[in-house]
Design a protein that fits this description.
Layout (H helix, E strand, L loop, with lengths): L18 E2 L4 H6 L4 E2 L3 E6 L5 H10 L5 E5 L9 E2 L5 H7 L4 E5 L1 H8 L1 H18 L2 E7 L5 H10 L2 E10 L2 E11 L9 E6 L2 E6 L2 E2 L1
Parallel strand pairs: 3-7, 3-8, 4-5, 4-6, 6-7
Antiparallel strand pairs: 1-2, 8-9, 9-10, 10-11, 11-12
Helix pairs in contact: 4-5, 5-6
């Protein structure tokens, strides 16, 4: 198996955990380097808000080994078709430092919230042992509020992708609502969708 730690960004020895790039430069800057290794990340929004693009960018960063489990969309090259897999079987398919489950919404609908939360608990334990990160995609507008609340509580990091139409323009922003053991950024991060995926801005410039 490839060395899954080779692309983890080294942080000076200040007691802080090492971090793994989010795949979005502006978000890395907002999070002071990226996602702390060993954490589970929930990204949510509508199907047109950019969550799928964010998940793919996270998966593909720097060529680091990772696993993309697709259960409700087109299976692209390198992804695993998880359509017929029970969540208990996902763990045996996971390899590398960057794991994506697209989507947790399908698991909740197909198997129920309790099974989804059980999967999240097992995933947290496994990611801590491996010092890997797992990202779950959740789609808004299809779950009960109590289900969304329970999933958010189970995640270490929660990021919302939103879009609003203003006259003739679409304004897209992401918000980091939760960071385990750290303060969440206080501002929204504007982003655009290009041919190359998501590009997030910092202050007035696109990075």
């Amino acid at each position: 198996m490839a060395d899954t730690k080779s692309h983890i960004q080294d942080i000076p020895d200040t007691g802080k955990p090492k971090k793994r790039s989010t795949g979005i430069v502006g978000l890395n800057l907002l999070l002071d380097g990226g996602f702390p290794e060993g954490t589970i990340i929930m990204i949510y929004g509508t199907p047109i808000a950019g969550v799928d693009l964010a998940a793919k960018q996270f998966w593909k960063v720097d060529g680091e080994e990772g696993t993309y489990l697709m259960n409700d969309g087109d299976v692209e090259s390198g992804m695993i078709d998880a359509t017929e897999l029970h969540p208990e079987m996902y763990m045996t398919q996971m390899a590398g430092g960057r794991i994506v489950v697209d989507s947790l919404s399908t698991i909740i609908i197909k198997y129920g919230i309790e099974e989804a939360l059980k999967f999240l608990r097992l995933s947290r334990e496994e990611m801590k042992k491996r010092r890997s990160n797992i990202m779950f995609v959740v789609y808004t507008g299809i779950h009960e509020p109590v289900e969304m609340t329970r999933v958010m509580r189970a995640a270490d990091i929660v990021i919302e992708f939103g879009s609003e139409v203003h006259q003739a323009e679409i304004e897209r922003t992401l918000a980091v609502h939760k960071m385990k053991d750290a303060a969440s950024p206080r501002r929204l991060l504007p982003f655009i969708i290009t041919d190359n995926g998501i590009e997030a801005s910092t202050t007035s410039r696109v990075v």
